[in-house]
Design brief:
Number of helices: 10
Radius of gyration: 22 Å
Structural class: mainly alpha
Shape: globular
Helix content: over 70%
Order of helices and strands: HHHHHHHHHH
Oligomer: single chain
Distance between the termini: 59 Å
Length: 259
């Protein structure tokens, strides 16, 4: 069976699915019709713009253009995570940017040098942009969930933390249990996905490859690689972000600060 291409008519007909969702919202008086319409419009505009832009980048295959795309993706991911964590903490954006950048770069370097062992992958946008995009998107969620959980907990447990400090604990010792819980929270989506992948869900990578005609076992192998990549990058990102946030809650005299 040949690959089925979607044209503008097909995309127009797919709007019927959103129309059904909007009709259901109106019928059940959920008040979601405006949000659904706006989300659908943004989805169409954003993906068509990105698709057009990436098509040009894929044809051009210029390393600097690829780096520019990855830098923009990284910056947007960092801003999204920072906004979720909160705007009261000082200099959170550079810390989140550095954490996501380091963990993503380390993961992608390992995959390229150890697993794929193909130097040309770095200059091939067909590989580097989609794989990095998946890694960045998941690292963003891990940073946002773990960072927000830790910041909220530290703001709400001032008495407990100061009690530990007064008994001689260091700042890191006083918040160690809160940091561990925040890191665990950041890994919950990844662990849940790994538990049910292939049984309950077929993620985007394996689905896309199957639709493009790739052999099922090869598609499954790529999905295994992706899941392991996400486990590594998410845990590393959560570790770095929570460590950075913890440091912002204490001054040079090891006194707890509130934000």
């Amino acid at each position: 069976m040949e690959r089925i291409e979607l044209d503008l008519l097909d995309l127009g007909l797919s709007v019927g699915l959103i129309a059904v969702a909007i009709a259901l919202s109106i019928w059940q008086q959920l008040g979601l019709q405006g949000q659904l319409a706006l989300a659908a419009a943004r989805t169409v505009v954003q993906l068509l713009v990105v698709g057009t832009f990436l098509e040009a980048v894929f044809e051009w295959k210029n390393p600097w253009a690829i780096l520019a795309v990855l830098a923009v993706m990284l910056t947007i991911a960092s801003i999204v995570a920072k906004n979720r964590i909160g705007n009261k903490l000082p200099n959170v954006l550079p810390m989140v940017w550095g954490s996501i950048c380091f963990s993503s770069a380390l993961t992608m370097t390992y995959v390229n040098l150890v697993v794929l062992r193909e130097p040309q992958v770095w200059s091939d946008p067909h590989y580097i942009i989609p794989l990095t995009g998946i890694v960045l998107g998941n690292a963003t969620n891990a940073a946002a969930i773990a960072g927000e959980r830790l910041a909220t907990t530290l703001n709400n447990t001032q008495i407990e933390i100061e009690t530990h400090l007064s008994l001689g604990a260091t700042p890191q010792q006083a918040i160690a249990s809160y940091r561990r819980e925040a890191i665990r929270a950041g890994l919950i989506p990844t662990l849940n996905a790994m538990m049910v992948v292939g049984i309950v869900t077929l993620p985007g990578i394996i689905t896309g490859q199957l639709l493009s005609g790739v052999k099922p076992l090869n598609a499954a192998a790529y999905q295994i690689l992706i899941m392991f990549m996400l486990a590594c990058v998410n845990l590393l990102t959560a570790l770095l972000v929570t460590r950075g946030i913890a440091g912002k809650f204490f001054n040079a005299e090891a006194q707890l600060q509130q934000f």
